[in-house]
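Researcher: Let's walk through a ligand-bound prediction step by step. First, I give you the protein sequence. Second, the SMILES string for potassium ion. Third, you return the three-dimensional complex as structure tokens. Ready?
Model: Ready.
Researcher: Here are steps one and two:
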Amino acid sequence: MRAAEQHEITAGRQSGADLMERAGRGVVDEIFKKWPKLALSSGTAIVVCGPGNNGGDGLVIARLLHDRGWDVTVFFYGDSGRLPPDARLNYDRWLKYGNVRPFAELKDFLTTIGDHNHPDLWIDAVFGTGLTRPIGGELAVGLSALSNWSSDLVSSHGGYVVAVEMPSGLNSDTGDMMIDRSSGDDGSGWYCDLAVTFHAPKRCHFVGQGPDLIDDLAVVDLGIRTNDFDAVRLVRPRAKTNMTTAGHKYTRGHVLVLGGPRHSTGAARLAARAALRSGAGLVTIAAPRDALDIYACHETEVMLRPMDSAQELQDMLQDARFDCLCLGPALGVETAVALMPTVLDADRYTVIDADAITALSRSTDLIGQLHAKCVLTPHSGEFARLCPDLVSEPKIDAAEAAAQRFGCTVLLKGRDTVIADPHFGTQLCASVYEDAAPWLGTAGAGDVLAGMIAGMRDPAQAAWVHAQAARNFGVGLIASDLPDTIPAVLQSLWAETETPPR
Ligand SMILES: NC(=O)C1=CN([C@@H]2O[C@H](COP(=O)(O)OP(=O)(O)OC[C@H]3O[C@@H](n4cnc5c(N)ncnc54)[C@H](OP(=O)(O)O)[C@@H]3O)[C@@H](O)[C@H]2O)[C@@H](O)CC1
Ligand SMILES: [K+]
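Model: Step three, the predicted complex:
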């Protein structure tokens, strides 16, 4: 992002001051868009500005609010003599409107605010993308006091907290609050009702603590024309199908799901049904002989094959039409260990989930057999077993490192699902803000996703459809609701495109 801004500035298309003015104006516009009642009369605002360009944005916001008749108090942290030029320009412009109070006075100032003079807005413009180290000392103490006070403000008086770019202290890459714990602050960070970022969301808006600290996110276009953004790549849903009018069920793929024993058949059944609903032409469950009657009682369209040994699986895989394997959901770790050499040797598109991931984490030989057509779908616990050395890394970096290590796609599940493909890059599917679907955290939802990936052969799209299906269903969702909710999502994607299947 900063490279992009610099590119615009050096190319002479926009001055830094223009960008900052547009950024500040964008924040004000977003505030009045979100809370139209604030635009109807002049309120009061506290703007807390930091020592860089984020603070410069805050000073633009202060001036624009003042122009609309607002009563604005500006606090400033830092040395005004060391402000970057655009921020300095706006600092000087603000001094024609009002004064600047030192940040050190903020804590005491908060104690003087009574029930009748509380502000309507608090603007957090202390740090944006330029935070380079943990916040400590008086800064942490002051921001902490502000945070406590602003929570009271919101709960008791209905005022709003707006962060420029992100709540100050949030690392824009990792989404972690960078607070020096020795300052006495618990590091939980400060909350905002609205974060207004520029041009494109940053990683912190979707990963780590970001979504817990930000209630709503708005993105302001600064008119920057280059594509060179250090921003997160979100999954873009698109109508994609393996259906053609000339095709038939075998051209749409035959998924072989490896099913568990009598007492654990549900997970494979969920995956199988999801694969069918997601577009697979045929789905077969291969499972122990003594469990087939249970599978047969539950599934109509899914075919069944007895399979009690790796040899039987190998014989089955002589049929090249089984072009996709899906294994792991309630398979049993020991069974997974026994079957995986055959599975990986078959060199098919292979979705490796649940018990199969645990099996992998126990065997470096198996890991050595992974190939480019594998998709690993760990949740955080499985990932920690598989890659213990990467768990302390930021989530996106960890998934990318694992994908490089294994030479295959790694889909690291969660509210912020990361899809790292060593060849096509990394995408993020985040169920936050208006896309939140907390009820997706339910038993079997991961089994459904594994089946969807097998059916769609596109892990990122599968993750998006999976989350959208959950959102469409709403609260009360259980995993077996999901497969039958998939068609409506796929149909709505098709409705948005003018290109029908050919
Ligand atoms: N460029 C543009 O045209 C546009 C930029 N825009 C805006 O600029 C923002 C980025 O600006 P920025 O790069 O100046 O970074 P910012 O977040 O303000 O902080 C840097 C300052 O903080 C200091 N500092 C860091 N860590 C610290 C700590 N722990 N404790 C104490 N101090 C610490 C650091 O000090 P230093 O490390 O240099 O010693 C430096 O002084 C971006 O988020 C957006 O809001 C928009 O206007 C669009 C146009
Ligand atoms: K900020």
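Researcher: And what stands out?
Model: Residues 254-495 form a domain with the UDP-N-acetylmuramoyl-L-alanine:D-glutamate ligase fold (CATH 3.40.1190.20). The pocket of potassium ion (ligand 2) is lined by residues 54, 124-128, 163-166, 168 (CB under 6 Å).
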